[in-house]
Amino acid sequence: MSFTSPEFLIFLAVLLAAYHAAGAARLAGWVQWGLLSVASLYFYGFKNPQLLWLLGFSISFNCVAGWLIARCVQAGRAVPGWTMGVALSVNLLLIVFFKYARLLGSLLLPAGHPMLAHLQDIPLPIGISFYTFHAVSFLVDLSRAGTRETSLRPFCAELAGGNLLSGLGKLSLYINFFPQLISGPIMKARAFLPQVGFHHFSTIAWRQALRYLILGYFLKTVVADNLHEQTILITNANYAILKKFDLLLLLYGYSCFIFADFAGYSLMALGFAALFGYRLPINFNFPYLSASITEFWRRWHISLSTWLRDYLYFPLGGNRKGTGRTYLNLFLVMFLGGLWHGAEMRFAWWGVGHGLLLMIERLLGAGGEETSVKYGSVRRTLQIFITFHLVSFLWLCFVMPDMAHITGFLKALWKNPIGANPRATYVILIYALPVVLYHVWGYLRPTWREKIAACRQDGWLEPLAYGIMLYFIITNQGVGGDFVYFNF
């Protein structure tokens, strides 16, 4: 069920009415979160109910594993290594089998091996990467409830006390909460589980939710869907006959498309969660204003980069085990982060590219805190320009079907004559303009704080901007399509 489909709007209206009716009646908190959990299962299995068994297994298994961990934490004992090892291994084996069995088979088995045909038939459950990452966060955070993750102590005590039904329901909501189930943001257990409880109608941040939803729908349906109709041309062999400016414009357009599509989804997720009283983390912070690849990963898909940092980079040793190990950890994390996006070598190369750039920046002492270079300076502007192009060319690993197409595009960009198609240029520039203006706004914010505050006090500029976006959502939607991160 897509956020942009009529079926979803009906689902949302019915769920909102039932949820807040329960709140108005002052029913027990479990009625609300139980209703949300069941509705999220319905949302996930709407088109493919056969996928529910795998999600159900993940929730049930992790609830039992969490119960074993919680008992140790409550008793003040260290969690046995075998318990964490088995629990984490089962989760990771699920994602390896369903997502990477085909890739591993193609690398390890000879061509024509009969097993390869069977591996091709393994389905890819939608959202498995996201809900598996949630499960891992739950197990790790729960094991730390006795020390660092104090916010999980009430849940830990509840689970250890044998209240498995309540624990199962709350864990189910955390893993399959419908706004972020398919494409994130990835929520840490320590941040989400303390929010599970009673939420009254009067406590909902309705205005903020509406802002998130209007901006999210605008970025997806107006910007991304219209750009997709044009930038999809980059994936076919026509790049061999296109001129240089056409090729560059398609590349820039795709960079704007993937931002608008994914940031649009994330904003919708924040808005829908807010309607039910839940707070999800901001996932994008003007990423194309980054002056380095290091800074880019503080601004792009923030929930993924922080997950990789907390649950992979730090456990590997981070930068605490010497320079060589630090470089290896950076490279390994980005390589695995690339493969997380898809079981194809082009995603691995995308991760390798980002990993190498992070290593080079660290070697040169670049990519430090973003405040080290003054906003508006010529130096920072040049760094933003370079970083944007590095990121954009690496997006070729996402949009092209294979490495041969990537090299073909780069050769065409080098050899083809200078020129452009006026019609394609016009369309891409028009629909990429909101992304550009959005980042211009982010660029000016640090130095225009007083002017922005004055405009907000006037009280007319912000409603006008959201009114214009709402008008275009109604009148100028592109051809609808799935969110690009549904595939990951």
* Element pattern in H and E: HHHHHHHHHHHHHHHHHHHHHH
What is the general shape? globular
Oligomer: single chain
- Give the fraction of residues assigned to helices: 55-70%
Number of spatially distinct domains:
2
Largest sheet: none
Radius of gyration: 23 Å
Count of discrete alpha- or pi-helical segments spanning 4 or more residues: 22
Question: Could you name the ranges where pLDDT drops below 50 across 5 or more consecutive residues?
Answer: none
Structural class: mainly alpha
Give the CA-CA distance, first to last residue. Answer: 16 Å
Strand-residue proportion: under 5%
Number of strands: 0
Global mean pLDDT:
87
Which features does this protein show?
488 residues, mainly alpha, 22 helices, 0% strand
